């Protein structure tokens, strides 16, 4: 099995965030950081050390953090808030809705430890509904990068985007395969592998699994197109439709509930424009549990094999 | 140097603001007159004497004092004050709560109404936003102050106390908060619904400098707002416990939670307006 992308090291996407924050802060003096007692986990310590006057420790008080960020944005700053994805969204939904999204504030909500791969802490912390909540909010941009390099690039890119952004990343070490110099354009999908039989739209950690799945499918004679949807909102509708026009069927893959996530967004796009078979890889209306990430991805149907199976079902449905 | 207050002018503005509030709420038979009337003196004192404001409106508010309203349901009093101050035409007050209006039921930025910097209405959020704006001022080297008003019922929201802790810990001493203490909330008196006990002591215990004030006495308001400002810049956030009468200025509306969110009838409006002179001309 020959993979079209290779890697030499595995790194966590949250470290990509930490590196990106430091770099963008050096370039842009308006960037400020707020953190709710998870500075180490969010990899914000390097930023804190270099810019102590621009770092605000808020303690375990996420609602206040979101409000503070809205106020700082009002004063012309570009606040990056940092905590786990669970506490970045569900816990503070109303604060984000009123003080940030409805008020059109230039706040970057940076959320780590998203999804099942948070692992052993279990379902209390494994949020799988955050993308759905955030993409429903008017004015909100939703980004879920796939590896260290892309997370770093996204962290830097969002400073130049005027408006609220939800940036979602994770805890575990995953292959680093996106070239360091690949430009990150919000809302622009990236075709990683071209194919003609099935389109695989993947986001976050599932992009790597899609690359693995493509190689396995190729051995079975199925040519899969792998598209990295790093921006779930605004969705690159043109890229999705163009790909499915070519392949005739699709698979969505994400570390999120099937309800409300990327799969829903792709389904809406296809059914409104050009209906085609779509198989969805994601968590099927259940909470997670404790375990190591690989076991959890396997148990909840988010593995490479799940994508292979879904692609074969999608191709079968074309007949 | 702040000029000497012209109390006759301030009282005239406050009276006209009360008339505006009643007419706005009556016109659409919805809105919150009680708290709006109770805070008419505070808004007048702030905008017509205390705040150092630049001409026109810009969102960042750099180089001027800022005001945030956390208990957004008393939007009528804010809209009237902003219009009377010249942020927009007073005639626009007639659009309050109507379709396609910039004067939403609760304050919003979406329609671009001058004077509003954040949406409020879902309670408990304004203090956090004001603190963020105050810290942005510090980062920008801007010596101006940030004012924020909250309701007393709103003190039951947990986020207020997250913000209270934060402000003291980070020594946000360029903020001058106020609580509209009218002892009323929707379901009854504060004491009956969820007693705040000694609210001033709570804020003191959270590390704030606490000032007391009669929010319906213009002279006391001006005096205590000036005193609050002298307490700023000393490492502690400042808060004013402002005692007000809900429905203040209209005898049959005073001191009752029944006027929290109920509009007066034609007859009641007539009776109410008879108690308030048209000092600056109705819109």
From TrEMBL, chain A:
Co-factor(s): thiamine diphosphate
Keywords attached to this entry: Thiamine pyrophosphate, Transferase
Matching InterPro entries: PDH/Transketolase (IPR051157), THDP-binding (IPR029061), Transketo_C/PFOR_II (IPR009014), Transketolase-like_Pyr-bd (IPR005475), Transketolase_C (IPR033248)
EC number(s) per entry: 2.2.1.7
Entry annotated with the keyword Transferase: yes
Similarity comment: family membership: Belongs to the transketolase family.
Name of the protein: 1-deoxy-D-xylulose-5-phosphate synthase
Source organism of the structure: Cesiribacter andamanensis AMV16
Automatic annotation (TrEMBL), chain B:
Enzyme Commission number(s): 2.2.1.1
Keywords from the named record: Thiamine pyrophosphate, Transferase
UniProt cross-references to CDD domains, sorted A to Z: TPP_TK
Cofactor(s) for this UniProt protein: thiamine diphosphate
Domain Transketolase N-terminal: 13-272
GO MF term (any one): transketolase activity
Pfam family, one: Transketolase_N
InterPro entries: THDP-binding (IPR029061), Transketolase_N (IPR005474)
Signal peptide interval: none
Family of this protein: Belongs to the transketolase family.
Protein name: Transketolase
